[in-house]
Amino acid sequence: MPNRCIKEGDNPDLTKERKTCTFDTDELTANLYGSRNNMERRREITKKISADPDFADPIPHDFLSREKCIEATAKKTKAVVQRGSEFCDVTNYYEMLHLINEAIGIGGYPLALHYGMFLPALEGQAEKELTDDIIPRAKNLEVIGAYAQTEMGHGTNLRELETTATYDKATQEFIINTPTRSAMKWWPGNLGKMSNYAVVTCQLFIDGRKIGPHNFLVQLRCEKTHEPLPGIIVGDIGPKMAFDTNDNGFLALDNIRVPRKNMLMKHAKVSPDGVYTPPMHAKLNYGTMVYVRAHMLYAHGQFLATAAIVATRYSAVRRQGRIEHGVPEVQILDYQTQQHRIFPQIARAYAIIFTYMDIKDQYDAMIKGIAEGQTDLLPDLHAITSGLKSVVTHMAGLGIEQCRMACGGHGYSDASGLPKLYGVQIGGCTYEGENMVMLQQTARYLMKAVASALQGKPLSHSVAYFGKKSSGKSRIGKEGGDIAREHEAMLEALEHAACRLSVEASQMWEKRGRGGETKERAWNGVTVEMNRAARVHTRVFMARSFHRRVTSSPPSIRPVLTDLLSLYLHYECVDMAHHLLEDGFCSGEQIRYLKSRLYEDLTTLRPNAVSLVDSFDQSDRELNSVLGRRDGNVYEALYQWARKSELNYTDVLPAVQKYVMPMMEENRSKL
Ligand SMILES: CCCCCCCC/C=C\CCC/C=C/C(=O)SCCNC(=O)CCNC(=O)[C@H](O)C(C)(C)COP(=O)(O)OP(=O)(O)OC[C@H]1O[C@@H](n2cnc3c(N)ncnc32)[C@H](O)[C@@H]1OP(=O)(O)O
Ligand SMILES: Cc1cc2nc3c(=O)[nH]c(=O)nc-3n(C[C@H](O)[C@H](O)[C@H](O)COP(=O)(O)OP(=O)(O)OC[C@H]3O[C@@H](n4cnc5c(N)ncnc54)[C@H](O)[C@@H]3O)c2cc1C
């Protein structure tokens, strides 16, 4: 079967792997990106960008200072903006995303938050009077914006943000102010140096009454000189774990006046005479966060895919040690531990991307509903995107780190691309709502679902399975080798565990309440259990999404996807075995059965491993990894990469000349 990656001159071990492929890699790629046309369009973009001198990096960013990296990124950003339509349909979200990944990379760029949050916030939350003015200019990139919500003292607990917006009826303006040091906006991407506007989240005050957090458009810098406007202090927060090319910023506002229309008033409103009208749903103002959390799934699925590609290809190329005496050294991909480390990451990357597709459909349906005045889909989507954002970012982070370690010493080098990838990706556990906190949002929803299920009330989409009657004992290992029924038995077992954990957490919560604790204090006493239930529920949702996509996939790729799904489900069940065992739903024997099936899956997938990662269709530019390159010619490339280190510009470094040589000389003369 064809793997389209085979080319002359490639590493022979990689070619050998590609020849054992049992499916058409292009079919799988097309399925992953929605259609053959989408796949071809991605490849055209890659080809054009790779050949374009505006996007060439004579010196890899690994060897540049942060300032130089930002300069190089800004230059490429300008080229993307001015010449974007030469490469793709600039109105197509996925084509633009791919263009940016190819042309600029993942470490941040001057317009990341402009497109990622500033524009979505204005489009989703601002009223026509404001959007008519600012959106055309923002889309035309006459202005650049950031989303400034988090403060030095508060990020999670939005209710206690300190920045104030006080309505002045006399002038029909809001006065925006940073009252304390901890009220400074701190962290917002692109706020420090690039943006001249921001959507700023402030506590709204009318007639001395605190109404709560609302968003306001504020101009930060002069449109001509880009200097901060009077009363505005703005800058970069300094180096951080990754996102080197993003100017995450700080901001202090000294009683800045903005017109009334600058409040984002699509949902909540303040009339000219200062009358406040709340939104039709209390949390519609938080809509931008739901949007980003939903879309983060795609980015994080792709991040994990990158790591899986690097680790799998490198493990096919790397030979080290022997499994049996008297035979040549083996490809490290033949070690069972290596497969057990890497293959679940491949499966999880597919599962995350497929889950994203489901969520995207639900998000679009919700937006359509809101436009027609219905908010009934919001609570379910908020609850499941909160859980998914937490589970996926954590899962991807652990997976990337596994892949990095699976590459041995070279995985620790920036040449592998994996340390930087991890740095960028792991930020997702924190931004857009810290994971422990977001899981609690899911858990709150589960508690309501438990109550509804007990009362026989209708259950919404993500928790519908709470209404199923459990069979009491798992069918795992008792389906006579019927794969479809085995998959269903595993899904049923996971659903049983999620439901049980939710019910038990609810009982623990209630018990503490009966013991005299307030609801809130009692909640804090059971949050570990609450978050556990939320995690398992979310993993059930992912498993169901993956299962749905696989069972409805074209017949040509269904067998390999079914193998991958088997691995995914076996791995998930073994990983969560304690939950399945705890109430006796599964027996120890059933868990042993799951483990043995998992080891069989590793062997089954082995011949298709390289082809499965090839099907993610990430180019060498996107991978940005010497170890993961498509042609597998790793060792020569590793040497050429190291030669570019600035430490190698001279044979004797000034630091050596100045300190180390005299020290050695002194020591010698002491003898
Ligand atoms: C375009 C795609 C981009 C892809 C990205 C890829 C990579 C890009 C790289 C980098 C970009 C980084 C960008 C980062 C940006 C940011 O980080 S912006 C700042 C984000 N900040 C947060 O997320 C803050 C987290 N805090 C909160 O969300 C809230 O404070 C809270 C924790 C939810 C608590 O809020 P609150 O106290 O007000 O509410 P509760 O009492 O807990 O709940 C009341 C009810 O409201 C419901 N609720 C809460 N939030 C929402 C929501 N967003 N939507 C709908 N409903 C919501 C909650 O469930 C309660 O419901 P109930 O009363 O029925 O139980
Ligand atoms: C790379 C990056 C980019 C960012 N970009 C932006 C941006 O563009 N715009 C923006 O406005 N912000 C941005 N942020 C900020 C980000 O949204 C916040 O850092 C995040 O929401 C977490 O809030 P915090 O920092 O206040 O953490 P804290 O809430 O202080 O969390 C610290 C610890 O306390 C725990 N904790 C807090 N509350 C609870 C609770 N209720 N229950 C249990 N545990 C709790 C947390 O779980 C965590 O372990 C960015 C952050 C990063 C890292």
| SS-based class | alpha+beta
Count of individual beta strands: 11
Largest sheet: 6 strands, mixed
Radius of gyration: 27 Å
Low-confidence stretches: none
Individual helix count: 23
How would you describe what is shown here?
It contains 23 helices and eleven strands. The chain has 671 residues and is an alpha+beta fold. The chain folds into two domains: 155 residues, Butyryl-CoA Dehydrogenase, subunit A, domain 2; 350 residues, Butyryl-CoA Dehydrogenase, subunit A, domain 3, CATH 1.20.140.10. The chain is globular, with a radius of gyration of 27 Å. The model has no long low-confidence stretch (mean pLDDT 96). The site of flavin-adenine dinucleotide has 21 residues, from strand 1 and helix 13.
